[in-house]
Amino acid sequence: MSATAAALGQVAALVAALVLTVPLLARHLVHTYSSPRHLRVERALYRACRVDPDADQHWRTYAWSVLGFSLAGIVLLYVLLRTQQWLPLSLGMTAMPAEGAFNTAISFVTNTNWQWYSGEAALGHLAQMTGLTVQNFVSAATGMAVAVALARGFSRASAGGRVGNFWADLVRGVVRVLLPISVVGALLLVLAGVVQNLDAPHAITTLAGDTQHLTGGPVASQEAIKELGTNGGGFYNANSAHPFENPTPLTNLLQVYLILLVPFSLAWAFGSLVGDRRQGRAVVTVMTMLLGVGTALLTWSEMAGPGLVPSAAGGAMEGKEVRFGEAASALFAAVTTGTSTGAVNAMHDSLTAPGGLVTLFMMMLGEVAPGGVGSGLYGMVLLAIITVFLAGLMVGRTPELIGKKIGHREMSLVAAYVLATPALVLVGTAVAIGTGSGRAGIQESGPHGLSEVLYAVTSAANNNGSAFGGLTTGTTFYDVLLGLCMLVGRFLPIVLVLALAGRLAAQRVTPAGAGTLPTHRPLFIVLLTGVALVIVGLTYVPVLALAPIAESLL
Amino acid sequence: MTTHAPVTPGLPTLLRGAAPTAVTKMRPDRLLDNPIMLLVEVGAVVTTVAALLDPSTLAVLVSVWLWLTVWFGTLAEAVAEGRGKAQAASLRDLQTSTTARRVRGSADELAHTGPLAVRPTDEVPSTSLRVGDVVVVGPGERIPADGDVVEGVASVDESAVTGESAPVIRESGGDRCAVTGGTVVLSDEIVVRVSRDPGQSFVDRMIALVEGSERQRTPNELALNVLLLALTAVFVLVVATLWPIAGYADARPPVVVLVALLVCLVPTTIGALLSAIGIAGMDRLVRRNVLAMSGRAVEAAGDVDVLLLDKTGTITYGNRRATALVPAPGVEPDDLARAACQSSLADETPEGRSIVDLVGGGDQALPAGVELVEFSARTRMSGLDHEVDGRVHRVRKGAASAVAAWVHSTGGRPSPEVDAAVTEISAAGGTPLVVAEKVGDRPARLLGVVRLKDVVKEGMRERFDELRAMGIRTVMITGDNALTARAIAEEAGVDDFLAEATPEDKLALIRQEQEGGRLVAMCGDGTNDAPALAQADVGVAMNTGTSAAKEAGNMVDLDSDPTKLIEVVEIGKQLLITRGALTTFSVANDVAKYFAILPAMFAVAVPQLDVLNVMRLSSPESAITSAVVFNALVIVALVPLALRGVRYRPARAEVLLRHNVLVYGVGGLVVPFVGIKAIDLVVSLIPGL
């Protein structure tokens, strides 16, 4: 089988699997978030935590619940990382340094999973399981909850700013969606050869006669939610390039599938949640187009890409696993940056220059293609609001999306949202590149060095978590800078989205008429894609011109 | 349509007047509410300082063109305001102080006592009149203040305000009692109670409106402003962070180039034209003789979902007209025509005259020795008695039941055929009038039925079709019964009707539509319309209406033409479309500007970026200058469009969007490539570039 045929084959298999399962999961999601009934285990949880799952929260209460819950998560995780040496299953690991624990705690609570450390060399099993894996579940469920709250903003009429109950949304997201799929996913991964045990490291003697410690652990269970929740934090430093995490092309494809499953399903469910299925299909279409183009460009660049070495070798294999090859690595890279996952199965530092540009751009889109669980959906809906604002004006009406008018207040929230991440990326990059401590971490000279910094800050601010590599980030400077980027990049948008949801929920519904701009037809879909590309392009082109674009043109 | 404005000055004249005003508008404190232009001005100061410290052709050119950019922006606003200036001047003439005859006594006294015209008066200057004062105005005198006629009836020349030269009747009580200060009484004497203090009169408000001095930002303008500010903030960040980032790559561009990049990226086009668009939109309304009390109302007009229209006078001609005669069995059509005509000869109502017109009896004189029977509410019949050959002929016409009763009382027989005709005409939306005649002592005989019908104005169906295409539902309001209303609604092509409507019904209908999330527009003139006008999102009061109605609505139509609402809706839509189109154009322009500036900016440090120089601009300096010049000139080029507004044609939203995206979105991508290249061809000839 030729490389091209194999590349097309894996994409075809992926698309087929998604087409079959996304509508099913979407239906389950709609039921999960709109059913009035609680499961027995959920009721027990609510009772234990003393929360009323039926209280319809005002957006402010909802937002405070999200912030409070997340802050508690950060503190708990920080304490766990700082005290793991005294706890069971530590495998003899020492405490993480303060700034490193600060960074890691934020990283996992914000669904970023930026890892400055090597998992197998820094964390024991307890920290991995009760710290990181727990946050892998709840940070993902938090993102989904916020997206659902926004959907309620559209579907509710004159609801006085009430957007649902965070605790119920959180618990249901974990119990009814993430846990069951993770269990199935983990079993499939184990079947396919991923490691799952609680053993201490094995010492083996290599062919060359050296001694090597092989760390096993609860890898498959963490792997499933790592992908499903678009978290991306690997058990091992090498992440999904490590043969224990991702042993075969089949597990690779399964991981890519798990990454895309919830973001697409939630977008599909959005239609039903707001009472107009066509809206969900439109969002999915835009996401698919952006991801499709990104994947195609990246695959082309890696397989036949420019540059002396790749042309001579017939492909850009540096930094890629031989068991995957260029196409599967390119697909994984596009998917992991198009979602806010950040898991990697190849070293992005070694991607071709245009390939690196594509991964950067996918993140810069604001993680909407199809984005993180929840965050991709709300990011895309906010882009749709900007589009509908311009388009609505051009048809001579006060702009409205799904029956809700986009007025001055709504626009202020959307504008702040759209401004937040670029501000973090640009200012963060400027600070890192403009200070001695920032420059100290750069490995390569010239445009590639700039790409390394730009990638790290972009990844943190957009809560992606993948690393370009090359940049030494385990320093106080980067731990703090990236930690703050992750924190603000996650929760400022969330608060703005919830405020928007509250305002929308307080509005009446304007019924669609012949003068209303339909937001589900091809014209609008093309326009939304165009707006996303133009806004992101205009924001980042100058800095991209100095880094990967300059490098591509060398 | 008439306008009171003098002939609109052409653009060159306007420019001459506006140019100096525009310069004074460049003062930084006057740019505070336009942050984008203020930013450009700050940029101009920075580049000017840079040009002074380190003179170069590029720095000087960029500085000059940045100052021009700011000036073009203020010029657009000054030109838009200039159009209203001439109008305001002619309105000011109405405000010259006159002497008023004020009736002596306190407001309280005057409110309750009887005839006021006979009371003693003082001569006072019109500017001293306050609300509640009562003045007497005689023929040839100018009405000194806005008010309501409390006594008398007069014909008033309102042409100075409305532009309509035919005098109008103003009388106490009823719906035609409002008079406007500055208009002139032609005949008779009226007593007017002042309803407005000086400085708050109708004409004052008109002046403020046409001058644009009272302009407040509308909700949608505010929302757009937020978006523009966010875009500006992004670009400020982009350029500010480029300083350290480019420093790392040893590619730090000179300050002048960074400022040029910033000005080219921020949405200067729409930023410069935004307020001009708003002022010009209000001006377009004034030109159509509509005064909007707020810009908010104009914008709401663009969003209207439901239009409530009174049947009478709006959809149909004010009066019913006779359209057919239906003779009873055995009656010659000519006999019926003669009788119908005779019974109507003395009938001065429009319905009566229309019967005479129908049978072609306009030249008939009244027979000698006739005795007229006037219509009375009790008999509900009219007609005449006259003698022919010694026998008294009594001809009557009236409502079917009344005539039937009269025929019966004389011993005459009812006619099932006539009854059938009556029912049929009613069902078809007409009004039947039955004609009967009694000759001598014989019993009265039914002659037949005259069909009176509401005549729908020409072109209404087409207008309603247009409205439907815009997505607006029309509802006809009428006092008629449901049967009649349905027939007329079908004929006129409205979407729905409200029959036997009382003012309360109207109000309830508006509330019901609004609960459903729809925006409602209506027009009205009577005092009993006031609550509905106030409740409607867009309430257009007729100028002929009462002050209560004018006060309740948020627009006044000086022509008192109810179909004007349709034009108001179009102007509202045009306003939004123009804003959206120019914003899209402005943002789309940035793509080409990047292609011009980026390769030029990093020409030395990153020479490989020259492949992005797709326009093949002659040199880096020339590329940057060309982008800045294009950015400034495009403002000037778009001023006419901002003032005129983007053309609006009624169509489905998607059709409109496709058209506007192609013209302003795709056009906005392509035009600057061509424009910058063309400017580069000229600019590259300048030595030193």
TrEMBL record, chain A:
It is a multi-pass membrane protein. Keywords: Cell membrane, Ion transport, Membrane, Potassium, Potassium transport, Transmembrane, Transmembrane helix, Transport. It is found in: Cell membrane. One of its GO terms (molecular function) is P-type potassium transmembrane transporter activity. Signal peptide: none annotated. GO terms for cellular component: plasma membrane. It comes from the Bacteria. The keyword Hydrolase does not apply. The keyword Transmembrane helix applies. The chain crosses the membrane at residues 62-81, 177-195, 254-275, 282-300, 372-393, 414-433, 480-502, 523-550. The system is composed of three essential subunits: KdpA, KdpB and KdpC. Part of the high-affinity ATP-driven potassium transport (or Kdp) system, which catalyzes the hydrolysis of ATP coupled with the electrogenic transport of potassium into the cytoplasm. This subunit binds the extracellular potassium ions and delivers the ions to the membrane domain of KdpB through an intramembrane tunnel. Belongs to the KdpA family. This is Potassium-transporting ATPase potassium-binding subunit. The gene is kdpA.
